[in-house]
Protein backbone atom coordinates (compact mmCIF):
# COMPACT_ATOMS: atom_id res chain seq x y z
CA UNK A 1 0.00 0.00 0.00
CA UNK A 2 1.55 3.24 -1.10
CA UNK A 3 1.80 6.19 1.27
CA UNK A 4 1.04 9.76 0.30
CA UNK A 5 3.95 12.14 0.02
CA UNK A 6 4.41 14.32 3.14
CA UNK A 7 4.85 18.05 2.80
CA UNK A 8 8.22 19.25 4.12
CA UNK A 9 8.33 21.73 6.96
CA UNK A 10 10.22 25.04 6.82
CA UNK A 11 13.41 23.64 8.26
CA UNK A 12 13.51 20.77 5.79
CA UNK A 13 12.73 23.12 2.91
CA UNK A 14 15.58 25.44 3.89
CA UNK A 15 17.98 22.51 4.09
CA UNK A 16 16.87 21.17 0.73
CA UNK A 17 17.18 24.58 -0.96
CA UNK A 18 20.99 24.17 -0.90
CA UNK A 19 20.69 21.26 -3.31
CA UNK A 20 20.95 17.52 -2.94
CA UNK A 21 24.38 17.26 -4.62
CA UNK A 22 27.35 18.55 -2.61
CA UNK A 23 30.50 19.38 -4.52
CA UNK A 24 33.70 17.66 -3.51
CA UNK A 25 35.56 20.94 -3.06
CA UNK A 26 32.75 22.65 -1.10
CA UNK A 27 34.51 24.02 1.97
CA UNK A 28 32.03 26.66 2.98
CA UNK A 29 31.64 25.09 6.43
CA UNK A 30 35.38 25.50 7.06
CA UNK A 31 35.78 28.97 5.60
CA UNK A 32 36.55 31.96 7.81
CA UNK A 33 33.60 34.29 8.26
CA UNK A 34 33.86 37.89 9.43
CA UNK A 35 31.18 40.30 10.55
CA UNK A 36 30.82 43.47 12.59
CA UNK A 37 28.39 44.43 15.33
CA UNK A 38 27.71 48.01 14.27
CA UNK A 39 27.93 51.14 16.36
CA UNK A 40 27.50 50.92 20.14
CA UNK A 41 24.22 52.14 21.53
CA UNK A 42 23.34 52.96 25.16
CA UNK A 43 21.11 50.40 26.79
CA UNK A 44 19.04 53.10 28.49
CA UNK A 45 18.47 55.17 25.34
CA UNK A 46 14.71 54.69 25.65
CA UNK A 47 14.81 56.55 28.95
CA UNK A 48 14.90 59.79 26.97
CA UNK A 49 11.18 59.28 26.41
CA UNK A 50 10.72 60.52 29.98
CA UNK A 51 11.88 63.95 28.82
CA UNK A 52 8.73 64.24 26.68
CA UNK A 53 6.29 63.03 29.32
CA UNK A 54 5.00 64.38 32.59
CA UNK A 55 5.06 62.43 35.85
CA UNK A 56 2.18 59.98 35.57
CA UNK A 57 -0.26 59.59 38.43
CA UNK A 58 -2.82 57.08 39.69
CA UNK A 59 -5.50 59.67 40.44
CA UNK A 60 -4.06 60.07 43.96
CA UNK A 61 -0.34 60.86 43.75
CA UNK A 62 2.35 61.45 41.16
CA UNK A 63 5.12 58.93 40.58
CA UNK A 64 8.71 60.28 40.42
CA UNK A 65 10.45 60.31 37.02
CA UNK A 66 13.28 58.07 38.27
CA UNK A 67 13.28 55.12 40.66
CA UNK A 68 13.85 56.38 44.18
CA UNK A 69 14.65 52.84 45.30
CA UNK A 70 17.35 52.68 42.63
CA UNK A 71 18.85 55.97 43.81
CA UNK A 72 18.86 54.68 47.38
CA UNK A 73 20.67 51.47 46.39
CA UNK A 74 23.16 53.40 44.22
CA UNK A 75 24.07 55.58 47.20
CA UNK A 76 26.61 52.97 48.35
CA UNK A 77 27.72 51.87 44.89
CA UNK A 78 30.96 53.87 44.98
CA UNK A 79 32.96 54.99 48.03
CA UNK A 80 33.61 58.39 46.50
CA UNK A 81 29.92 58.87 45.67
CA UNK A 82 28.68 58.17 49.18
CA UNK A 83 31.62 59.89 50.85
CA UNK A 84 31.05 63.14 48.94
CA UNK A 85 27.39 63.17 49.98
CA UNK A 86 28.22 62.38 53.61
CA UNK A 87 30.81 65.18 53.65
CA UNK A 88 28.22 67.73 52.51
CA UNK A 89 25.68 66.39 54.98
CA UNK A 90 28.08 66.60 57.91
CA UNK A 91 29.24 70.11 57.04
CA UNK A 92 25.68 71.37 56.70
CA UNK A 93 24.59 69.70 59.94
CA UNK A 94 27.60 71.15 61.77
CA UNK A 95 26.80 74.66 60.54
CA UNK A 96 23.18 74.47 61.78
CA UNK A 97 22.08 76.27 64.91
CA UNK A 98 19.30 74.05 66.33
CA UNK A 99 16.02 75.79 67.06
CA UNK A 100 12.94 74.82 69.05
CA UNK A 101 11.43 73.33 65.89
CA UNK A 102 14.37 71.78 64.00
CA UNK A 103 16.90 69.42 65.61
CA UNK A 104 20.28 68.64 64.15
CA UNK A 105 19.32 64.96 63.73
CA UNK A 106 16.19 65.77 61.73
CA UNK A 107 18.12 68.30 59.65
CA UNK A 108 20.88 65.79 58.82
CA UNK A 109 18.27 63.34 57.48
CA UNK A 110 16.65 66.17 55.54
CA UNK A 111 19.95 67.12 53.92
CA UNK A 112 20.82 63.52 53.02
CA UNK A 113 17.46 62.99 51.32
CA UNK A 114 17.92 66.18 49.32
CA UNK A 115 21.41 65.21 48.16
CA UNK A 116 20.55 61.59 47.32
CA UNK A 117 16.97 61.87 46.04
CA UNK A 118 16.77 65.49 44.96
CA UNK A 119 13.77 65.92 47.28
CA UNK A 120 13.39 66.62 51.00
CA UNK A 121 10.21 66.71 53.09
CA UNK A 122 9.43 67.97 56.58
CA UNK A 123 6.23 67.30 58.49
CA UNK A 124 4.65 69.71 60.93
CA UNK A 125 3.78 68.14 64.28
CA UNK A 126 1.08 70.31 65.83
CA UNK A 127 -0.46 70.48 69.27
CA UNK A 128 -4.17 70.55 70.03
CA UNK A 129 -4.31 74.29 69.50
CA UNK A 130 -2.92 73.92 65.98
CA UNK A 131 0.49 75.42 66.73
CA UNK A 132 3.66 73.82 65.38
CA UNK A 133 5.56 71.98 68.11
CA UNK A 134 8.38 70.56 65.98
CA UNK A 135 9.38 69.59 62.45
CA UNK A 136 10.02 65.92 61.70
CA UNK A 137 12.05 64.53 58.83
CA UNK A 138 9.83 62.60 56.40
CA UNK A 139 11.68 60.01 54.29
CA UNK A 140 11.73 61.14 50.65
CA UNK A 141 11.90 57.55 49.43
CA UNK A 142 8.31 56.90 50.51
CA UNK A 143 6.75 60.36 50.19
CA UNK A 144 4.71 61.23 47.10
CA UNK A 145 3.19 64.45 45.94
CA UNK A 146 -0.56 64.26 45.59
CA UNK A 147 -2.58 65.16 42.54
CA UNK A 148 -4.62 67.60 44.61
CA UNK A 149 -2.53 70.77 45.15
CA UNK A 150 -0.93 70.79 48.58
CA UNK A 151 -1.58 67.10 49.33
CA UNK A 152 1.09 64.48 50.01
CA UNK A 153 1.01 60.71 50.49
CA UNK A 154 3.05 58.26 52.55
CA UNK A 155 3.63 55.18 50.37
CA UNK A 156 5.90 52.69 52.22
CA UNK A 157 4.56 49.62 50.44
CA UNK A 158 1.68 48.04 48.60
CA UNK A 159 -1.72 48.94 50.13
CA UNK A 160 -0.10 50.76 53.06
CA UNK A 161 -0.44 54.27 51.72
CA UNK A 162 -1.70 57.06 53.98
CA UNK A 163 -2.51 60.64 53.05
CA UNK A 164 -0.96 63.33 55.23
CA UNK A 165 -3.06 66.03 56.78
CA UNK A 166 -3.43 68.96 54.44
CA UNK A 167 -0.81 71.67 54.86
CA UNK A 168 1.51 69.66 57.15
CA UNK A 169 4.12 68.61 54.56
CA UNK A 170 6.67 70.96 53.01
CA UNK A 171 8.84 69.98 50.07
CA UNK A 172 12.30 71.09 49.01
CA UNK A 173 13.31 70.00 45.52
CA UNK A 174 16.31 70.33 43.25
CA UNK A 175 15.11 71.90 39.98
CA UNK A 176 14.57 69.72 36.93
CA UNK A 177 14.34 70.94 33.34
CA UNK A 178 11.57 68.51 32.34
CA UNK A 179 8.96 68.73 35.12
CA UNK A 180 8.13 70.65 38.27
CA UNK A 181 6.58 67.91 40.42
CA UNK A 182 9.74 66.28 41.78
CA UNK A 183 13.37 67.26 42.00
CA UNK A 184 16.26 65.23 40.62
CA UNK A 185 19.75 64.91 42.15
CA UNK A 186 22.62 66.73 40.52
CA UNK A 187 24.88 63.69 40.19
CA UNK A 188 22.75 61.77 37.68
CA UNK A 189 25.27 62.47 34.90
CA UNK A 190 27.93 60.56 36.89
CA UNK A 191 25.71 57.72 38.09
CA UNK A 192 26.90 55.39 35.33
CA UNK A 193 30.51 56.05 36.36
CA UNK A 194 29.70 55.21 39.98
CA UNK A 195 28.06 51.95 38.89
CA UNK A 196 31.01 51.11 36.64
CA UNK A 197 33.33 51.68 39.58
CA UNK A 198 31.29 49.18 41.59
CA UNK A 199 31.29 46.67 38.73
CA UNK A 200 35.08 46.86 38.44
CA UNK A 201 35.48 46.18 42.14
CA UNK A 202 33.03 43.27 42.10
CA UNK A 203 34.73 41.77 39.05
CA UNK A 204 38.09 42.00 40.80
CA UNK A 205 36.71 40.34 43.94
CA UNK A 206 35.27 37.46 41.93
CA UNK A 207 38.60 37.12 40.14
CA UNK A 208 40.38 36.52 43.44
CA UNK A 209 37.63 34.42 45.00
CA UNK A 210 37.32 31.88 42.22
CA UNK A 211 40.99 30.84 42.66
CA UNK A 212 41.87 30.97 38.94
CA UNK A 213 44.99 33.10 39.05
CA UNK A 214 47.08 31.40 36.42
CA UNK A 215 46.60 34.04 33.76
CA UNK A 216 49.49 32.71 31.65
CA UNK A 217 50.47 29.99 29.18
CA UNK A 218 53.31 27.62 30.05
CA UNK A 219 54.92 27.10 26.66
CA UNK A 220 57.39 24.17 26.68
CA UNK A 221 59.45 23.38 23.57
CA UNK A 222 62.27 21.32 25.11
CA UNK A 223 62.64 17.58 25.18
CA UNK A 224 60.74 16.34 28.22
CA UNK A 225 59.78 12.88 29.23
CA UNK A 226 56.13 12.09 29.65
CA UNK A 227 56.52 11.76 33.39
CA UNK A 228 58.01 15.27 33.54
CA UNK A 229 55.14 16.72 31.53
CA UNK A 230 52.64 15.04 33.83
CA UNK A 231 54.43 16.46 36.85
CA UNK A 232 54.23 20.02 35.49
CA UNK A 233 50.57 19.51 34.58
CA UNK A 234 49.76 18.37 38.12
CA UNK A 235 51.66 21.32 39.60
CA UNK A 236 49.59 23.73 37.50
CA UNK A 237 46.36 22.07 38.58
CA UNK A 238 47.30 22.49 42.22
CA UNK A 239 47.79 26.23 41.65
CA UNK A 240 43.99 26.64 41.64
CA UNK A 241 41.99 27.05 44.80
CA UNK A 242 43.15 27.90 48.36
CA UNK A 243 46.81 28.73 48.63
CA UNK A 244 47.08 29.40 44.92
CA UNK A 245 49.90 31.94 45.22
CA UNK A 246 52.68 29.40 44.87
CA UNK A 247 55.93 29.23 43.00
CA UNK A 248 56.78 26.30 40.73
CA UNK A 249 60.30 24.91 40.34
CA UNK A 250 61.17 23.14 37.08
CA UNK A 251 64.51 21.31 36.64
CA UNK A 252 65.32 20.19 33.13
CA UNK A 253 68.71 18.42 32.82
CA UNK A 254 70.43 19.17 29.53
CA UNK A 255 67.59 21.51 28.66
CA UNK A 256 68.02 24.23 26.10
CA UNK A 257 67.63 27.97 26.71
CA UNK A 258 64.05 29.19 26.34
CA UNK A 259 62.84 25.62 26.43
CA UNK A 260 60.13 26.76 28.85
CA UNK A 261 58.40 30.11 28.42
CA UNK A 262 55.70 31.76 30.50
CA UNK A 263 53.41 33.94 28.41
CA UNK A 264 51.04 36.13 30.51
CA UNK A 265 47.62 36.49 28.94
CA UNK A 266 45.42 38.28 31.45
CA UNK A 267 47.04 39.54 34.64
CA UNK A 268 48.95 42.56 33.32
CA UNK A 269 46.22 43.80 31.04
CA UNK A 270 43.50 43.26 33.62
CA UNK A 271 45.49 45.10 36.27
CA UNK A 272 46.07 48.15 34.08
CA UNK A 273 42.44 48.20 32.96
CA UNK A 274 41.20 47.91 36.54
CA UNK A 275 43.27 50.84 37.75
CA UNK A 276 42.26 52.94 34.75
CA UNK A 277 38.56 52.30 35.30
CA UNK A 278 38.80 53.03 39.03
CA UNK A 279 40.66 56.31 38.54
CA UNK A 280 38.52 57.54 35.65
CA UNK A 281 35.20 56.79 37.32
CA UNK A 282 36.45 58.35 40.56
CA UNK A 283 37.26 61.59 38.73
CA UNK A 284 33.81 61.61 37.11
CA UNK A 285 32.06 61.20 40.45
CA UNK A 286 34.14 63.90 42.14
CA UNK A 287 33.49 66.26 39.23
CA UNK A 288 29.74 65.69 39.56
CA UNK A 289 29.81 66.38 43.30
CA UNK A 290 32.39 69.17 42.93
CA UNK A 291 34.32 67.95 45.97
CA UNK A 292 38.11 68.55 46.20
CA UNK A 293 39.93 65.19 46.33
CA UNK A 294 42.02 66.13 49.38
CA UNK A 295 38.84 66.49 51.44
CA UNK A 296 38.01 62.82 50.79
CA UNK A 297 41.41 61.44 51.79
CA UNK A 298 42.53 60.63 48.24
CA UNK A 299 46.30 60.18 47.95
CA UNK A 300 47.79 62.27 45.12
CA UNK A 301 49.59 60.40 42.38
CA UNK A 302 52.25 63.08 41.88
CA UNK A 303 54.73 64.59 44.29
CA UNK A 304 53.15 68.04 44.04
CA UNK A 305 49.97 66.97 45.81
CA UNK A 306 46.61 68.72 45.66
CA UNK A 307 47.55 71.97 47.34
CA UNK A 308 46.61 73.46 50.68
CA UNK A 309 43.59 71.57 52.10
CA UNK A 310 42.55 74.59 54.21
CA UNK A 311 42.17 76.77 51.12
CA UNK A 312 40.35 73.97 49.34
CA UNK A 313 37.97 73.67 52.30
CA UNK A 314 37.24 77.41 52.26
CA UNK A 315 36.55 77.38 48.53
CA UNK A 316 34.38 74.30 48.83
CA UNK A 317 32.34 75.83 51.65
CA UNK A 318 31.80 79.03 49.70
CA UNK A 319 30.94 77.38 46.39
CA UNK A 320 28.91 74.38 47.63
CA UNK A 321 27.84 74.60 51.26
CA UNK A 322 26.61 78.20 51.22
CA UNK A 323 24.33 77.63 48.19
CA UNK A 324 22.98 74.51 49.89
CA UNK A 325 22.27 76.53 53.01
CA UNK A 326 20.18 78.93 50.96
CA UNK A 327 18.11 75.97 49.72
CA UNK A 328 17.13 74.95 53.25
CA UNK A 329 16.47 78.53 54.28
CA UNK A 330 13.48 78.35 51.93
CA UNK A 331 11.73 76.38 54.67
CA UNK A 332 11.48 79.58 56.70
CA UNK A 333 9.54 81.21 53.87
CA UNK A 334 7.17 78.25 53.62
CA UNK A 335 6.62 78.00 57.38
CA UNK A 336 6.40 81.68 58.17
CA UNK A 337 8.91 81.52 61.05
CA UNK A 338 12.63 80.88 61.46
CA UNK A 339 12.99 77.14 61.88
CA UNK A 340 16.37 76.85 60.13
CA UNK A 341 19.28 79.03 61.15
CA UNK A 342 22.98 78.70 60.37
CA UNK A 343 25.94 79.97 62.35
CA UNK A 344 28.75 82.17 61.08
CA UNK A 345 31.75 80.18 59.93
CA UNK A 346 35.36 81.20 60.45
CA UNK A 347 37.59 80.60 57.46
CA UNK A 348 40.10 77.80 57.98
CA UNK A 349 42.86 79.60 56.06
CA UNK A 350 42.83 82.60 58.42
Which strand order do you get reading across the main beta sheet? 2-1-6
Rg over alpha carbons: 32 Å
Helical proportion? 25-40%
Shape descriptor: elongated
Structure description:
The chain is an alpha+beta fold and 350 residues long. Among the domains are: 54-186 and 303-350, no CATH class; 216-262, no CATH class. Helices cover 36% and strands 11% of the residues. The protein is built from nine helices and eight strands. It has a three-stranded antiparallel β-sheet. It has a three-stranded antiparallel β-sheet with strand order 3-4-5, with no helix packed on it. Strands 7-8 form a two-stranded antiparallel ribbon. Strand 4 (152-154) and strand 5 form a beta hairpin. Helix 3 (79-95) runs antiparallel to helix 4. The chain is elongated. 19% of the residues are buried. Mean pLDDT is 79; it is low at 19-25. Belongs to the phage portal family. PBSX subfamily. InterPro entries: PBSX_Proteobac, Phage/GTA_portal, Phage_portal_PBSX. Pfam families: Phage_portal. This is Phage portal protein. Residues 1-20 are annotated as: Disordered.
Amino acid sequence: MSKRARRMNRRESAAASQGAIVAANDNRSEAVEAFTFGDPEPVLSRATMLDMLECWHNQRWYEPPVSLDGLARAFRASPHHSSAIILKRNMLAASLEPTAWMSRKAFAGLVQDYLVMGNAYVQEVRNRLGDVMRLDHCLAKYTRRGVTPGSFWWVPGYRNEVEFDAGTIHQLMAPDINQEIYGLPEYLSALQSALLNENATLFRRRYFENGSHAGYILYATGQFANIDVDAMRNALKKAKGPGNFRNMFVHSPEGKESGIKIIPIAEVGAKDEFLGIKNTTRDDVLAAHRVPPQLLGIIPANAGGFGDPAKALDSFFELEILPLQSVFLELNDQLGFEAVRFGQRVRAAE
